[in-house]
Design a protein that fits this description.
Strand content: under 5%
Number of strands: 0
Oligomer: single chain
Radius of gyration: 33 Å
Structural class: mainly alpha
Shape: elongated
């Protein structure tokens, strides 16, 4: 409520000022058009190419030089360091890039902003930009009305550039009108006081307009008409650089610790650069004069000198800060720590939600986090250590000693460590859905399917823990042996899921999941057979047998759900995301994928069979061949009724 009142008061004061000073209306309109053009450019480049900017940013993290170069080039093309900064924060918060790479992208983006000052100083004050703006606005309007995303994005870019040109024209014309009635140079302050005051004014203008480019254009337009002195214009430029950090701070407001680290790095870099520029403004000014003489820039060409100064002090900041990137990373990681709370999501945040590529990656990583939580709850519920499941210990040895559940209240553990994250994943995927491409929607659907199946697995184990406590202590021995087999199956299922996660190829992961499914069916059939024998021989009571049969069904559901989750996360979306879209709509996961035969032969030759969940493969491999031959025979049979 307070914010609305302040905004209303600000708008009223702006209206009063515009009507009281008609000569300032052109300047204000120019700023508004310029900001509107910036928004059009941001919207256009965000939607252009189905995430081309995100893909370029992902490739740019391979080295420090490439990360820095991407920051320079992308900002020079889009004329928006704010957009580059926000996207970088989104990618960093989703874990798609390192903090060091993100910092260097920010360094490059700051240097890239200098291109706008050069273009404005070199052409904006001389050319009739309004003439160039008109056709751009016409084509921008036509293209923006098209439904195709790429064409619509091109229209937004054309319209954005057109409004930028029109805004610059109005600012230039507006200051010419202002100079006839008001002499703003009378407000100039000499010396250190002038530097400090106008630096603060430049920072404030940038914070209000959310664009350092707008502040720079306004400063250059005022300087070209003599409304600010050269010295005060330098201070305004330094202030604009400091004020632009507010975009990073706002962008990181809904981010995790990773995003906040990058925003802090941006603030540190710009403040250090601004302080250095103020402290060294005299030698920098002398260097600008030398450069102007070398390039043939006139002694009174203040706008070009301002562009040179803007470039120099940003280069100075990069040169000074580059050697300290590693130390800055260490300090930021200590100052902004990730929350260590298994009950909440780690990767889902508003910053990742802003860009489709980052949103999908955040969902995939959060699904891994959910799986890790479910892993701990499930194996602890049946008295197995996590470290043993992921070790080289054989499964028979792993379950050789009876263990009481480490997590007897499984339902509470489910609510605390699984349900909340599952709910956050579902909500995040729903919010992101409309901004995703078709293939990205397929991957998001895969995450939803996987997270639902993980939750099903944890809920299923709650039903068998009471009987495990009752029969898992050694009496009767027949029941104890079967529960040992069921515990072994749960451990084997998780071992297979983690092997699929770390598989070298999609085919290998598919083979692991397929073999897990067959192992689960074999275990279930074996338990039912043994129960029949035990009941017929009166070794156990029928009431005990039905309890064990129910729990065998629960273990079947657990292992099958885990196989479904592994397939959705590590097989299907890698092999073909489009297929998953249709399967997810029907809420079904394909039961058989991959080339089992070829993978089996490859694993047998490399001696890796034992590593895959300790699955006994020989009989299953033969059944695969039999199934293949049977299907081939059915396909070869004539279809339909013989009417001869």
């Amino acid at each position: 409520m307070r914010r609305r009142i302040l905004i209303a008061i600000a708008l009223i004061l702006l209206a009063v000022a515009l009507f009281s000073f008609p000569s300032a209306q052109s300047v204000a309109a120019g700023v508004a058009l310029f900001l509107f053009g910036m928004k059009g450019l941001e919207d256009g480049f965000s939607g252009f190419g189905g995430g081309a900017l995100e893909r370029a940013l992902e490739r740019a993290t391979a080295s420090k030089a490439r990360a820095f170069g991407f920051g320079v080039a992308s900002t020079a093309v889009m004329q928006s360091s704010s957009l580059v900064t926000v996207i970088t924060i989104s990618f960093l918060s989703a874990g798609l890039m390192s903090l060091a790479s993100g910092i260097l992208v920010i360094f490059g983006a700051n240097l890239g902003t200098t291109t706008g000052a050069w273009l404005m100083a070199a052409f904006g004050m001389k050319a009739n930009l309004s003439a160039a703006a008109m056709p751009l606005l016409v084509f921008g309007g036509i293209f923006s009305m098209q439904r195709k995303q790429t064409v619509h994005a091109i229209g937004s870019i054309c319209a954005g550039i057109g409004f930028l040109f029109l805004g610059i024209h109005f600012m230039k014309e507006g200051f010419s009108e202002v100079s006839e009635s008001v002499d703003l140079t009378a407000l100039a302050l000499p010396g250190i006081a002038g530097l400090v005051v106008f630096t603060l004014v430049g920072a404030f203008m940038t914070i209000v307009m959310q664009s350092s480019h707008a502040t720079l254009m306004l400063t250059i337009a005022a300087l070209s008409t003599g409304q600010v002195t050269y010295g005060n214009a330098l201070a305004l430029t330094i202030g604009a650089n400091i004020g632009t950090t507010i975009s990073a701070v706002i962008g990181a407001a809904g981010s995790n610790a990773r995003g906040r680290r990058l925003a802090a790095a941006h603030v540190v870099f710009n403040v250090v650069t601004g302080v250095l520029a103020l402290a060294l403004i005299v030698p920098l000014g002398a260097l600008v004069d030398l450069t102007g003489d070398a390039l043939g820039i006139g002694a009174e060409n203040w706008t070009m000198k301002l562009a040179v100064f803007h470039s120099y002090f940003n280069i100075l900041g990069v040169v000074v800060m580059w050697p300290f990137v590693s130390k800055l990373v260490v300090w930021l990681e200590r100052a902004f720590r990730d929350k260590d709370d298994a009950a909440h999501s780690v990767w889902l945040n508003d910053a990742a939600l802003r860009h489709p590529g980052a949103a999908v990656e955040a969902m995939l990583r959060e699904a891994d986090h959910l799986l890790d939580n479910a892993f701990e709850v499930l194996v602890h519920s049946v008295g197995i250590h996590r470290s043993d499941v992921l070790s080289s210990l054989s499964l028979d040895e792993l379950v050789s000693r009876p263990q009481a559940p480490f997590e007897p209240d499984v339902l509470a553990a489910y609510q605390r460590r699984v349900k909340h994250i599952y709910s956050e994943l579902f909500e995040f995927a729903t919010e992101a859905h409309s901004s995703l491409s078709r293939s990205q929607q397929a991957r998001a659907n895969g995450v939803r399917v996987a997270s639902r199946r993980i939750a099903v697995a944890v809920r299923a184990v709650t039903l068998m823990v009471p009987n495990l406590l009752r029969y898992g202590r050694g009496t009767p021995p027949e029941a104890f042996q079967i529960y040992q087999q069921l515990r072994r199956q749960i451990a084997s299922a998780f071992r297979a899921v983690y092997r699929a996660r770390a598989a070298d190829s999609v085919n290998e992961g598919a083979a692991i999941v397929e073999l897990l499914r067959r192992e689960v069916a074999t275990t279930d059939a074996d338990v039912n057979r043994r129960l029949d024998e035990l009941v017929r021989s009166r070794s156990i009571a029928a009431t005990v047998a039905t309890s064990i049969m129910n729990d065998s069904g629960h273990v079947f559901d657990i292992a099958t759900a885990l196989a479904d989750a592994a397939e959705a996360l590590y097989v299907v979306h890698e092999a073909g995301a489009e297929d998953l879209a249709e399967r997810a709509r029907d809420e079904q996961i394909p039961m058989h994928t991959g080339e089992i035969r070829n993978t089996y032969d490859e694993l047998r030759k490399t001696g890796r069979l034992q590593a895959i969940g300790d699955i006994r493969l020989t009989g299953q491999y033969e059944r695969v061949n039999m199934d293949r031959e049977e299907r081939a025979k059915r396909r070869a049979e004539p279809k339909g009724r013989d009417r001869s």
